[in-house]
Amino acid sequence: MPHSKAQKQKVRVSMSEDTCSDHEEAEREHFIACCLPKGCPLKTSVDLPTSVRVICNNDACRQSGYMHSECFDDFEEEILAYLRGTGRARSWSEKQRRQNIWTKKGYDLAYKCCACQCGKGHLRKDLEFVPPKPEEVGELQLQHQTKGKRKKKKNNEKPSVNVVSTSIRPRRSSQSSNCSQLSESPPERSPISPQPKTPTKKTRANSHENTYHFFGEAFNHGANHSNTLSSHANVLSTFLKRADFSSFQGVLPRHKVNPYHIKMEDEMNDEARHFVLSNLSSRMTCTASCVLCCRELPVFDRYPLIDGTFFLTPRQLNSSCVDVSQNGKAQYLSAVCLHCLEGIPNRVKCKLCNTEWDGSSHQLGTMYCYDIFAASPCCQQRVACHSCGKPVVDLSEGKKFFWEYSQAMKCPHCGVSGFHCIKAISYYEPPDPIR
């Protein structure tokens, strides 16, 4: 017989294998990856009817442009948290921040924390996107599959001339009309290539808003402010010039090497930088030591100032802290290195309750105007009175602002005033040294 039983079985097996491979290929073609910048925790395909569409201002971006609604909510909450502590958005109500987040007014302030996974663009919500109905999804996937087959067929043919741009232009034309107004907001360059800004009249007029540092109290312009700035050039010559961002790229994941996580521009607010550099220069030093692991850190003349972050505290945490005066208050300029903030190779731990301290949410290369360790108390001992040992803060309610934990408080139990929430740095167990 021309077709034996064994041959028929082989044919059936090969057909079933082809069917499975076609099914897997179809699933791959239908899979829409979530483009959440920090990485999607769900690891599942985006369901278009419940998705949120975002647009990257980088024409060459290869991300899907869709997020799970849950992922987008997290993304939006991070942006709102950023707005609560920056520029004029600090004076907005929560309702105003939510209303302005995707308008030009809000996005001009928030675009830095909207860096896309492509590394060269910034994301913005597509306000004109209407999610397709469930019955329309099948038709869209069929169109997508047909496009994929055509693309595969074209890949096997010889390349044609002058057709490269046609695959990119439709995406640009489908963007929201509001995006044309944002051409000056997100930088058209790589987010890790800082360039000097030229202030406009509007920027100068509103420069008083920027005198408030991103992370705490204001730096007052003294009467001799112009004289101070003129001597700034002499101060800068003491410090190193940063050649690249390799020290950050070697430690941080790729999605965190951007102006949101690393301070890269002065944003018309040079007071904090001048404050750090002039105080260190007056002490004849161009380095700082990490208060946790004592790693020696070089200080640079431009942002990011340090491979870690500076902060001010009213108590001297160790001998490396530099005594300074900020707005007439005695403070100590202290530093934490990048590795201790990121918890590399392991997290910093509180010795009082064994809770891990996570410093990865702090912006690198800048200065906070409050004690960043006191700002996030993990146990009752952290807010205990220095005199009677009873808590001066109810942790179930906490404080409204991080800087409030660095202020002098009066104990409600014994009446003694002091910086009760600022504890000795020895109560923290630093990470193991990197070998």
From TrEMBL:
It holds the Pfam family Headcase. Residues 135-205 are annotated as: Disordered. Signal peptide: none annotated. Residues 34-129 form the Headcase N-terminal domain. Residues 146-155 have a biased composition (Basic residues). Residues 237-424 form the Headcase middle domain. Residues 173-185 have a biased composition (Low complexity). This is Headcase middle domain-containing protein. The lineage of its organism: Eukaryota, Metazoa, Cnidaria, Anthozoa, Hexacorallia.
